[in-house]
């Protein structure tokens, strides 16, 4: 007979908390004998603990015909294991005042929980059971597939913005699976079978392919002991070689125009660029981060100041670049042109190019660069101030084959970037051979 996880843990909750002086936050990492990496960030300012279990598998690993399989397995592990019935883990954590969720990305599948420190063993027992004994039954897959297809309909198919971006990302990543939607193409979801899911689970869900990150008001040695107790008995397994998703550096200029009813005009400009993990020069990624800030990092940034506020050709503009990534990345500029003033997305594109070219023709003013650098460093510090965000940050570094130990070295490089570095980076990477341009327009303009 199953012994209730909840029943065994509720009896411990009456124990009084031990009074102690709050020590300074500290981070330590350990490798269990079975290969599981454990990172503990001890910070007693928090009354809760966050557990993040990261697997080194995501949509970038998926072969043709199996897009969405990582996300599908993520859904299925909640539907029962040797100790848990379907949905029981969520119920247990909610009863304890905690939460339980998961997400799939290009390079990882992440399971994350928040709960009181005295119930950390509950989190570990649930996560360990799902790692090693998830059922993934055919009957559960029939229902869960419909749940996923409904999720896709709501988040992608019924959103003009997401539909437009989905095809744009596919074109922008011509030589890897990075352009596939994490949730999967609908026609692939329709033909995924439970045997494929079970095989995917057995291939990738192993302790030596996972990182367990714990942050909060916990004792490091206690966390290590719990990890040994609940995860230590899971045998390591051979996992496939996990190749990095690299793109053709300069595949040539690509363009796509899509029309949707009642859709405000949107313009995407995406450049194929390296990440911090795939760069060959350690100054490239921080220079791209600073370029993002200089172009669209606030009201005084170049695109905002010139094209939104001065010329009013754009209603809004943003720039995105994810430096902490295991794979090649995209530097994207997204804008909403005012077609009454700009007349066309081509005209808006030319004005954006003019602003980009100004950074190629002359380096930015040092005071502008310092302002962007101060903003960027402040954002990074603020992002890690919340312990849940810090857990996410530590895990993202590990998945990207970076390390929290080299954080200061990366900051030192950021502080050393010069205006001339910015100019050279713009000249090298913000070029037409690396560009995908996507215009999303109202259907009413399709025949103009």
SSE order and pairing:
Layout: H1 5-10, E1 26-31, E2 37-42, E3 49-55, H2 69-76, H3 88-95, E4 99-104, E5 109-115, H4 120-133, H5 138-157, H6 160-172, H7 186-191, H8 194-204, E6 210-216, H9 220-231, E7 254-260, E8 266-273, H10 284-296, H11 302-310, E9 314-320, E10 329-337, H12 339-342, H13 345-361, H14 366-383, H15 387-399, H16 407-416, H17 419-429, E11 435-442
Parallel strand pairs: 2-6, 7-11
Antiparallel strand pairs: 1-2, 3-5, 3-6, 4-5, 8-10, 8-11, 9-10
Helix pairs in contact: 2-8, 4-9, 10-14, 10-17, 13-17
Task: Describe the global form.
Answer: globular
Mean pLDDT, to the nearest integer, reads 93
SSE succession? HEEEHHEEHHHHHEHEEHHEEHHHHHHE
**CATH fold label of the largest domain:** Cytochrome Bc1 Complex, Chain A, domain 1
User: Helical content, roughly?
Assistant: 40-55%
In words, what does this structure look like?
This protein is of the alpha+beta class and 448 residues long. The protein has two domains: 5-12 and 20-231, Cytochrome Bc1 Complex, Chain A, domain 1 (2-Layer Sandwich), CATH 3.30.830.10; 254-445, Cytochrome Bc1 Complex, Chain A, domain 1. Helices cover 43% and strands 17% of the residues. The strands form two sheets. Strands 1-2-6-3-5-4 form a six-stranded mixed sheet, with helices on both faces. α2 packs across α8, α4 runs parallel beside α9 and α10 packs across α17 (419-429). The longest helix has 20 residues, at 138-157. Residues 40-170 form the Peptidase M16 N-terminal domain. InterPro entries: Metalloenz_LuxS/M16, Pept_M16_N, Peptidase_M16, Peptidase_M16_C.
